[in-house]
Structures are given as structure tokens and as C-alpha cells.
Write a structure and sequence with these properties.
This protein is an all-alpha fold. 49% of the residues lie in helices and 0% in strands. The chain is elongated.
Length: 77
């Protein structure tokens, strides 16, 4: 049985589309960092897991990876 790939998954995307995607991923990372904070007991106040929880780590990684992409174009300005 062969696996068929969807052509839209393999196709490259334009830079403006990628920049919108990067901005959305950075915003989601910021959201995760804001929601999954440490409470006074040292646990995440949102999910109750030990701090930093996996959601907070994921948010930090998203922000670190996507936040530095240019916002207004390839030259950043």
C-alpha cells in the first residue's frame, strides 16, 4: 500500500504566508507562557504540573524560534 501525499503539503509557501504563520506561532507561544505560570506552590497555575510544565516549555520554544522572523518584510523594516 503506497502513501499518497497531498500536493498542498509539499508545495512551498510564499514569504508573506510564512510570515503570518510565524507571527501566529509566536503569539501562541506568548499565550502559553502567560497562561502556564508558576503559582506559590511551585506548580503551574493552569494545569497543576510541576513548573515549568510541558506547555510552558513548548510556548518558550515557539517564541524563541518564531519571534525573530521579520514582521514587515525581509529587511525587518
Amino acid at each position: 500500500m503506497s502513501i499518497q501525499r497531498r500536493s498542498d503539503v509539499d508545495a512551498p509557501i510564499s514569504e508573506p504566508v510564512f510570515l503570518r504563520y510565524a507571527q501566529a506561532q509566536a503569539a501562541y507561544g506568548t499565550h502559553l507562557l502567560a497562561v502556564h505560570r508558576r503559582d506559590l506552590s511551585g506548580c503551574c497555575c493552569h494545569c497543576g504540573r510541576s513548573h515549568p510544565c510541558g506547555h510552558r516549555v513548548h510556548g518558550a520554544r515557539l517564541l524563541a524560534h518564531y519571534a525573530d522572523w521579520p514582521r514587515d518584510g525581509p529587511d525587518g523594516g
